[in-house]
Design goal:
tRNA (guanine(37)-N1)-methyltransferase activity, four-stranded antiparallel β-sheet
Length: 476
């Protein structure tokens, strides 16, 4: 079957049912016979209320597992036998008829797809969109699968299939897609880490499977630190980090991602602590380093201090918390004044296809700022920032992947980074059979950070003269 015919999914099974004499005992039966009761993804197959004949009382039946026999009490549990002897129920023959609505998605897939194509292709959900990445053997079944998804996943109204790899046709990490079923609407609303994001899935990269990785990295940040998200997308790292009172400068070259990020900043009420940018990553890294330092030294409080009141809760949640006895301070904490630090503690570079190639932007990026990290005697007073650089590798083996990723990092930094120099190497996820996503975390080497480079360009200073950087977030 390659075209869905719902009428074919009809089948009648001879089984056993428990006839409950008194409707008031249904709860007792469901609890006492739970080891014998038929279970299914569709709860309606457990219980049925039928009319024996016109004018008679309703007959309440609880359907039992296929191995339960109505004439053999040894096939049921001791608890069920006690209910039988107590005249609360009796076992009777019953015909179970199941139609299309009674079967679960996985059960339908098992009955349709050939054995070599099972299990069912994974469904990746983003808001109301179900995103498939079908292999060639599954393509003849793509419209059938899409209609099954629409039928069996009520929140899904759009089903798409990825035609080419991410970034294969666009530097913005988007991919060509085909609509398989439902509405062509690709503008989604989704939540992650108690934050709400809105974006056009056709124009902005988003991967719900990376939520655990986002949370892993965010857990490394401390309130009051400054973090630079170099390839931020719609902000899955940046926005939740800002809710932790982490100062975030987030950048993405994609204008649609920048627009979604900006909307998400206001929607999640972190506009005083998160600043969006829309420039090339290679320009953003050194420019943001210099400008953060200049702002931190500014004599004007508007520039160097952030009055931060991060609202973690939606209005409905706040009402529930008040009813639960939470104090007003716990629900609406007092605004906190955060002094802008002179340097970033972390850089996030989540562009695994090419992030290592942008590492040359760190060469000489801290030249002239040695006093931030060393005292007059050369003693370390502050660590250089930690870079979280994502990359793809064919191997799932950390030793093999770490060696090759470090070679790539070294080539772009102009300085050798060995696997032992990494603070952490994380196997993020298997993208394809021979494609694994890794995150290499390492400190910017001293030799790279303070390398001799030409003086900063004059245009790096211009934006400060035009605008106080935090004024965009102030209330009218």
């Amino acid at each position: 079957m390659t075209t869905l015919d719902r009428s074919l999914f009809q089948k009648t099974f001879p089984i056993t049912a428990a006839h409950v004499f008194d409707e008031r005992n249904i709860k007792k039966v469901l609890e006492g016979c739970k080891s014998d009761i038929l279970r299914s993804g569709n709860a309606t197959v457990r219980l049925v209320v039928t009319e024996q004949e016109k004018g008679s009382r309703k007959k309440v039946l609880v359907r039992m597992k296929p191995d339960v026999k109505h004439d053999d009490f040894s096939t049921v549990s001791e608890e069920t036998r006690e209910l039988i002897h107590s005249r609360i129920l009796e076992l009777v023959p019953h015909n179970l008829h199941m139609g299309y609505k009674d079967w679960t998605y996985n059960e339908l897939i098992e009955s349709i797809l050939p054995p070599d194509l099972r299990p069912a292709p994974p469904i990746h959900k983003v808001g109301h969109i179900a995103h498939l990445n079908l292999r060639n053997p599954c393509l003849p079944y793509k419209y059938l699968l899409a209609n099954l998804i629409l039928d069996k996943h009520p929140i899904i109204t759009t089903v798409i299939n990825k035609i080419q790899d991410v970034g294969s046709w666009s530097a913005y990490r988007t991919f060509p897609m085909e609509l398989l079923a439902g509405s062509p609407d690709t503008k989604v609303t989704t939540t992650e880490s108690n934050c709400e994001f809105r974006f056009d899935f056709a124009k902005v990269y988003w991967n719900s499977r990376l939520e655990n990785e986002h949370q892993r990295i965010i857990a490394l940040f401390k309130p009051g630190e400054a973090v630079a998200d170099v390839m931020a997308g719609a902000g899955p790292f940046a926005v939740p980090a800002a809710k932790k009172k982490v100062i975030v400068w987030a950048n993405d070259i994609n204008p649609d991602a920048y627009a979604s990020l900006t909307e998400g900043i206001w929607r999640n009420k972190v506009q005083r602590i998160l600043r969006p940018f829309n420039v090339d990553a290679r320009e953003f890294i050194p420019t943001s380093i210099r400008n953060l330092y200049r702002l931190s030294r500014s004599p004007e409080p508007l520039n160097n201090t952030i009055t931060c009141h991060v609202d973690h809760f939606k209005p409905g949640v706040k009402t529930s918390l008040r009813r639960a006895g939470k104090t007003e301070e716990e629900i609406n904490p007092t605004p906190v004044k955060i002094r802008l630090p002179p340097t970033f503690s972390h850089f996030i570079m989540n562009l695994p296809a090419s992030a290592p190639s942008y590492l040359d932007a760190f060469i000489g990026a801290y030249n002239g700022l040695e006093h931030l990290f060393f005292d007059s005697h050369g003693n370390v007073q502050r660590e250089l920032p930690l870079v979280h650089c994502y990359a793809f590798h064919r191997s799932v083996n950390a030793e093999n992947a770490g060696k090759d990723i470090c070679e790539d990092i070294s080539k772009n930094l102009g300085h050798e980074i060995r696997p032992d120099d990494l603070e952490h190497l994380e196997n993020v996820r298997l993208v394809a059979p021979y494609k694994t996503m890794w995150c290499a975390s390492f400190r910017v080497p001293v030799e790279v950070a303070f390398a001799d480079v030409p003086k900063p360009r004059e245009k790096d200073k211009v934006e400060l003269k035009k605008e106080k950087w935090w004024s965009w977030a102030l209330d009218d």
